[in-house]
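>> Question from a student workshop board

For tomorrow's exercise we were told to take the sequence and the ligand below, predict the bound structure, and bring the output to class. My setup keeps failing. Could a helper post the expected result so I can at least see what it should look like? The ligand is FE2/S2 (inorganic) cluster.
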Amino acid sequence: MSDSELDTPDAGDRPLNRRGFLGAAALAAGSLVAAAGGGAASVYLAVPALKGGGEAAGWTLVREIAATAGDGPGRATIDVVSQSGWSKTTTRQAVFIERRPDGTVAAYSARCPHQGCLVDWRSEVKEFFCVCHSSTWTRDGSLALGPAKRGLDPLEARLTASGDVEVKYAMFALDTAERVEVG
Ligand code: FES
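>> Workshop helper replied:
Here is what the output should look like for this input. Compare the format with yours to find the bug.
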């Protein structure tokens, strides 16, 4: 599966301008670099977990494979497997993972809650930023500047006994102030 299969913004009724398109393309390219072990952010490798069945339903193991300078959150790409009857569907999703100094871990969806572009982390100013329409969020995911109407969508995250990170991916409705889970 390629990064082009990452959930992308709804075609929607607000087409991206040229800057937004180029930015989105740059982010997609950045994801590929990160997946290959390069890039400015911490890099994580995830293995699929089953969503919808089993004891560990919904949890996806995220394993760090590289880290670079800076203590900001790292973007990870995870394969989320959903099962309905005999049918399994895998979608590739992007998340941010942050290991806090106190030993806890936080995770956020990297899907912009405005129209679904990939959000980036800007370590030089320590904020999340969406190139599509310039929404920004503080490090804790709180909305700093719209047009997005809410903070980044937090995801359940936990540490395993061996110190690995697991996240429970969820998807939320776009362009709403209220966070409404849709899958
Ligand atoms: S998609 Fe519009 S600000 Fe992110």
